[in-house]
Structures are given as structure tokens and as C-alpha cells.
From TrEMBL:
<dbReference type="InterPro" id="IPR036291">
    <property type="entry name" value="NAD(P)-bd_dom_sf"/>
</dbReference>
<dbReference type="InterPro" id="IPR016040">
    <property type="entry name" value="NAD(P)-bd_dom"/>
</dbReference>
<dbReference type="InterPro" id="IPR006368">
    <property type="entry name" value="GDP_Man_deHydtase"/>
</dbReference>
<keyword id="KW-0456">Lyase</keyword>
<protein>
    <recommendedName>
        <fullName>GDP-mannose 4,6-dehydratase</fullName>
        <ecNumber>4.2.1.47</ecNumber>
    </recommendedName>
</protein>
<comment type="similarity">
    <text>Belongs to the NAD(P)-dependent epimerase/dehydratase family. GDP-mannose 4,6-dehydratase subfamily.</text>
</comment>
<feature type="domain" description="NAD(P)-binding">
    <location>
        <begin position="14"/>
        <end position="314"/>
    </location>
</feature>
<dbReference type="Pfam" id="PF16363">
    <property type="entry name" value="GDP_Man_Dehyd"/>
</dbReference>
Length: 332
């Protein structure tokens, strides 16, 4: 079998979820490194970027996924696609199970079949999630037992477990257990982007208050572009394995709001914050805090963007964005 590990040369990469936050940053980073990037996009979804080969596919269509892998014969598959909203997973648990849990299995199965047929190594990267830990005690590491409390977490746990199964059969499959990571590409339905848009809107006089749900939930917040670098390092590691990708520090939703309002030049955040039970999840893990010691030790990766800078970068972007687009259609 032909393999490429350390000193890995650019080849062909297939990225699912390429139109999302992580997929967009990953495609850019891979293209800059000289990779030929192929991206999966949902049918009917308009997306395009120079130099990226786009393939339309529904992740629930296993046959279509298999055909694309056979056609491209990629050197590496980055599976970032799936249902990204924990809240949505409660309204559509079956769809979440298929798209987020079963689709990665279809991709790994075809990758292994294609590898055996061609004699060329195909690497597989799975974007796992801290939601697999659910109610497990913090800090959570690669050895922490799964205790998911949401349909999204259950689906991610299913896919994560399958990575180990296919790795045992000869597929160079790895996973990144990703804790919260944010950027200006986060959709407004994510609480962090809702906060930074809200702070930005209040600072320029477009809104007077911001309504949120549970302010006390503790999360491990990082910067998406830092985490994309971790994804590449994991996919190209000499030995396939699973790694927690996190900062190792927890902050509450209130902390994030305070950092965002400070960045927007506003003090006394309680003057602007309101809470509404409608925005509280049906079930929510109390504390998420990752232990990134393994990835630091094995691959030398460490989160470089500080918590306050994450919020500040997003607020700075959103102030300029709102000056052009306004707040129409935003649920703040």
C-alpha cells in the first residue's frame, strides 16, 4: 500500500460540510498548502469558491457519497458535515442520527473499500464533538466515558465509536473531539454569534437589549481557525488517533456576554441582558472543559487565541457588518 505520513505532500482532499464555518476555513487552509480540494454541498445550496471542486450530495444518500469517493479517490476525507444545531436535533432526532451518525460510517466504509481496491492509503478525519461527553465530569479527556444528553451528542458518539472500529480494520481514521470554537462565520442561531451581534447592535444604537437563555452554562471556547490547524495536524499525524481539541479553560455564557459587551465599549452588561426560558435547552451539560494535554504532547498543538480576543474579533466584525446590513431578520 502506498502511504504518505510525515512530511506529507499535498494531494486530493474531500471535505464534507465545506460551506460551514469549519469547512470554509479548512478549504482555504488546504488550498493554501497546495491541496486539490473537493467539497460536498447540499443540493440546491448555492456555494462556490475559486479553485474548489464542488460536488452536490445529501449526506443521507449513502449511494451518492460512495460514488463521489470512488470518482475522486481522495488522499484524505475530512468529514465536517452534519446537523450542527443541538437544538435542531431535538426536533429532528432521526434525521440527526442519519446525517450526523450514519453518514460518517458510509464514508468510512467506502474509503476502506476504495483503499483495498486501489492499494492507496485513504485517510479519514471525523469532526467529533464534546457533546459526546454530555453530563460527564469536567475536565473531559479522550478517556472520559460518553454520557450524551442530546440527540446530537448521541449521533456524534455513534460516529466517534465507528472511527475506532474502522481504524482496527486498516483505515487510517482519526477524530478530533472538538469543544466550542467560534468565529465571524458562526450563524446567528449560535449563542456566541447572537451575543456578539447583540452587543454590536446595542453599541451602534440599533437595539436596546439582548435576550438569552441559560447564562450559567460553562463552555470551553476557542477560535475556529486555530482548531482547523488542529484538524490538519490530526489528519496528517504519523499514527491515526483520537484527540481532544480544546483550550482547557471554561467560561460561562455570561462571561462571553461580558467580554463581548466590553469589546463593544459597553459596561454594566446587566442593563442590556434579558433571559427567556424559550432559549433554554431541553437538556444541557452543566460544564464542558476539555483536557488538551494529549494533542499538545503528541502533535504540539495548543490554542493560541485568548477567550477575550475571540469575543472581540467577532464584535469588531459584527459592528461593521450591521452598519451595512442592519438587524432585520435577526432574533436578538
Amino acid at each position: 500500500m502506498t502511504t504518505r505520513t510525515e512530511g506529507r505532500q499535498p494531494g486530493v482532499a474531500l471535505v464534507t460540510g465545506i460551506s460551514g464555518q469549519d469547512g470554509s476555513y479548512l478549504a482555504e487552509a488546504l488550498a493554501q498548502r497546495g491541496w486539490s480540494v473537493h467539497g460536498l454541498v447540499r443540493p440546491g445550496h448555492e456555494w462556490g469558491r475559486a479553485g474548489i471542486n464542488v460536488h452536490f450530495a445529501d449526506l443521507a444518500d449513502a449511494g451518492r457519497l460512495e460514488a463521489i469517493v470512488q470518482e475522486i479517490v481522495p488522499d484524505v476525507i475530512y468529514n465536517l458535515g452534519g446537523i450542527s444545531s443541538v437544538g435542531y436535533s431535538w426536533s429532528e432526532p432521526y434525521t440527526t442520527a442519519v446525517v450526523t451518525g450514519a453518514a460518517p460510517i458510509a464514508l468510512m466504509d467506502q474509503a476502506l473499500r476504495t483503499q483495498r481496491a486501489t492499494g492507496r492509503e485513504i485517510r479519514f478525519f471525523q469532526a467529533s464533538s464534546a457533546e459526546i461527553f454530555g453530563a460527564a465530569k469536567a475536565p473531559q479527556s479522550e478517556a472520559t466515558p460518553f454520557r450524551p444528553v442530546t440527540p446530537y451528542g448521541v449521533a456524534k458518539a455513534m460516529a466517534h465509536s465507528a472511527v475506532g472500529t474502522f481504524r482496527s480494520q486498516g483505515l487510517a481514521a482519526s477524530s478530533a473531539i472538538l469543544f466550542n470554537h467560534e468565529s465571524v462565520l458562526r450563524p446567528p442561531n449560535f449563542v456566541t454569534r447572537k451575543i456578539t451581534l447583540g452587543a454590536a447592535a446595542i453599541s451602534i444604537g440599533l437595539r436596546e437589549t439582548l435576550t438569552l437563555g441559560n447564562l450559567n452554562a460553562l463552555r470551553d471556547f476557542g477560535w475556529a481557525q486555530d482548531y482547523v490547524e488542529a484538524m490538519i495536524a490530526i489528519a496528517e499525524a504519523p499514527e491515526p488517533d483520537d484527540f481532544v481539541v480544546a483550550t482547557g479553560i471554561s467560561h460561562s455564557i455570561r462571561d462571553f456576554a461580558e467580554a463581548a459587551f466590553t469589546a463593544a465599549g459597553l459596561d454594566r452588561v446587566d442593563n442590556y441582558l434579558r433571559t427567556d426560558p424559550r432559549f433554554v435547552r431541553a437538556a444541557e451539560a452543566p460544564t464542558m472543559r476539555g483536557d488538551p494535554s494529549k494533542i499538545a504532547r503528541v502533535l504540539g498543538w495548543k490554542a493560541s487565541t485568548k477567550f477575550e480576543e475571540v469575543a472581540a474579533r467577532m464584535v469588531e466584525h459584527d459592528i461593521e457588518w450591521l452598519k451595512t446590513h442592519g438587524t432585520e431578520g435577526l432574533d436578538l
